[in-house]
Inverse folding.
């Protein structure tokens, strides 16, 4: 009698696919089976677990080859439907970057939309210019093309499939528009991205089966993992993949252009990976639940690389639609589509069951120890703290005349109104005082601005400067976390340093 | 109950038009959303069905644009149910069902006076509809 097998190989699984008796479950179904019957049974019964994700993946694009025009052109600059595309190689090879924006409809239409339109079979206008050479004399080109006219139309995504991502919030008093979408002031909403327990890398966190050469579901067609993605950081569960696939065979349902207001354009990519259940360990790993996957709630109102982390939160909480931050209930939205992620996993499952998709063993393992480094910066940029100076202040019960005198003696234009412990109440400018005189107003309360636009010491000066321009004001009180006034920064200080 | 969208011009804002109508016709009027300043304003109000016609007529006689608003339009072909809009909605008119599909409840939506979801849709599937069903479009304001 043979011993019960403790492992199976990819070849054995492919043989079962060929025979039509392979057992495939989606990641969602696998978790339920492990819950009800245990890892041992799940391993015995299941050959493959399909995973999926469908989210905005900015570091995506497509390599295309146009064929030669007559007379031939060595393209220098090119646009497709008004979206600037790159010419990273020889004469007629172009790269359509997902985030490049249309020059006529910026922020609404971009490279992701061009790729989606091409995949959908639509005609796209191509314009190009060149400097002209003896071998490529042509300097101007305008033509319309479809995917069938292209020699190659290859989706080439250098960072896809983020294992997990931050949950974004905004603690400031103003609405901000980010790549994590619209974030309302004072924690009025939160956004997150990622499929959690359905994400491919979460189901094979040690990269036992996912590696260089793994065949995957990509954009509704078949593609391949061609290496670690940029910023791959597996050690802290922020792995990514670099992938490619024949875009001619993809579907516009699974590759969709996207527009993020005041951020730019991007592309949603449907990506799914089959995990061969080679051993019990993998059966156990594919049973991971949303409640075991954590991410940070990050304050995007701080315009710095290392933004404050407010707490850790599980994908289970995120998917519930509401999380608690500082005792406040905050409604949370997903940016990636769970509905589409499930569709990716179930489509991939049916392909395998129908014998249309075979699994591959990786030809090389992906790094499992690397971490993502910050940029080396050889030039320092100024922050508010480097130009702020002490603010001239007053209290609310002072007379206008006394404040006017202070403006003259201290030779400033702005007086910051504070309470007895130095907390910000308002601001008065020399213009307000002039107006008070002209209109015969007596009390400070009548003329001070209470809705004060402020800055913080660790804010980049450029951001503070932009805020002043936005609100058409000439100074910002610098406050700490408790709203205590630490100083003031004026437009004059900024122009001295930044020369504008 | 039916919703009516009232648009006041700069000259009308200072007049107690809505109060006059409420008193004259004894209409209970629930104000769902309002954006009013010295330059003009918009009020989304809810009134009983049976007084709809006479109330709209009364506002129009006083020169106020009164319409039954079509609130938002969702292009179901374009929407891929990411859900970005869900947490933004102040009246919880947007939800995700058991199949993870985003659903819009037009009964709850307060429409063009809010529109917070519109520019948050990465698929650009949501349109705020300012047009109404009685021939009074937002262009009317310019003509006044």
């Amino acid at each position: 009698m043979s011993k019960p097998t403790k492992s199976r190989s990819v070849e054995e699984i492919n043989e079962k696919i060929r025979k039509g008796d392979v057992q495939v479950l989606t990641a969602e179904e696998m978790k339920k089976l492990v819950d009800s019957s245990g890892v041992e049974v799940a391993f015995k019964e299941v050959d493959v677990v399909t995973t999926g994700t469908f989210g905005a993946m900015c570091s995506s694009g497509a390599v295309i080859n146009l064929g030669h025009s007559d007379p031939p052109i060595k393209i220098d600059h090119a646009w497709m439907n008004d979206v600037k595309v790159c010419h990273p190689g020889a004469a007629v090879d172009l790269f359509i970057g997902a985030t490049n924006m249309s020059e006529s409809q910026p922020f609404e239409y971009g490279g992701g939309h061009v790729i989606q339109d091409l995949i959908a079979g639509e005609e796209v206008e191509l314009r190009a210019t060149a400097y002209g050479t003896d071998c490529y004399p042509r300097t101007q080109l305008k033509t319309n093309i479809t995917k069938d006219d292209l020699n190659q139309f290859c989706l080439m995504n250098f960072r896809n499939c983020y294992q997990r991502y931050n949950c974004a919030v905004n603690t400031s008093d103003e609405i901000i528009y980010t790549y994590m979408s619209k974030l309302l002031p004072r924690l009025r909403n939160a956004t997150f991205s990622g499929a959690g327990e359905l994400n491919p890398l979460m189901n094979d966190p040690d990269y036992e089966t996912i590696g260089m050469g793994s065949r995957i579901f990509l954009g509704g067609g078949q593609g391949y993992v061609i290496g670690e993605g940029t910023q791959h950081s597996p050690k802290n569960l922020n792995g990514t993949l670099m992938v490619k696939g024949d875009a001619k065979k993809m579907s516009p349902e699974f590759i969709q252009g996207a527009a993020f207001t005041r951020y730019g354009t991007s592309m949603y990519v449907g990506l799914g990976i089959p995990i061969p259940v080679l051993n019990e360990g993998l059966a156990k790993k594919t049973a991971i639940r949303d409640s075991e996957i954590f991410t940070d709630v990050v304050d995007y109102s701080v315009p710095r690389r290392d933004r404050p982390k407010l707490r850790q939160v599980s994908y289970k909480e995120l998917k519930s639609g509401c999380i608690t931050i500082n005792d406040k209930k905050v409604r949370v939205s997903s940016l990636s589509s769970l509905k589409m992620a499930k569709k990716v996993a179930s489509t991939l499952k049916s392909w395998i069951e129908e014998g249309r998709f075979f699994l591959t063993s990786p030809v090389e393992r992906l790094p499992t120890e690397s971490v993502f480094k910050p940029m080396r910066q050889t030039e320092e940029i100024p922050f508010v703290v480097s130009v702020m100076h002490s603010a001239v202040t007053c209290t609310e019960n002072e007379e206008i005349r006394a404040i006017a005198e202070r403006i003259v003696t201290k030779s400033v234009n702005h007086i910051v109104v504070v309470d007895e412990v130095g907390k910000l109440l308002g601001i008065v400018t020399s213009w307000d005082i002039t107006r008070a005189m002209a209109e015969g107003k007596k009390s400070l309360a009548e003329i001070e601005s209470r809705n004060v636009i402020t800055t913080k010491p660790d804010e980049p000066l450029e951001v503070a400067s932009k805020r002043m321009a936005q609100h058409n004001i000439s100074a910002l009180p610098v406050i700490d976390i408790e709203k205590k006034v630490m100083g003031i920064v004026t437009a004059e200080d900024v122009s001295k340093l930044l020369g504008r | 109950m039916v919703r009516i969208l009232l648009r006041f011009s700069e000259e009308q804002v200072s007049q107690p038009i809505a109060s006059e109508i409420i008193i004259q016709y004894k209409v209970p009027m629930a104000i769902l959303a309002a954006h009013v300043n010295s330059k003009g304003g918009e009020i989304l109000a809810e009134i009983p069905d049976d007084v709809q016609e006479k109330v709209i007529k009364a506002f129009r006689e006083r020169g106020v644009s009164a319409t039954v608003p079509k609130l938002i339009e969702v292009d179901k072909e374009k929407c891929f149910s990411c859900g970005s809009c869900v947490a933004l909605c102040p009246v919880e008119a947007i939800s995700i069902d058991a199949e993870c599909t985003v659903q819009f409840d037009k009964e709850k939506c307060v429409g063009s006076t809010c529109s917070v979801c519109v520019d948050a849709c990465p698929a650009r599937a949501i349109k705020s509809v300012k047009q109404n069903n009685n021939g009074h479009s937002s262009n009317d304001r310019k003509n006044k």
User: Anything to note?
Assistant: Helices of chain B lie at 17-25, 52-61, 139-143. Strands of chain B lie at 2-8, 30-37, 40-47, 65-67, 72-74, 94-96, 102-104, 126-128. Residues 52-61 of chain B form the longest helix (10 residues).
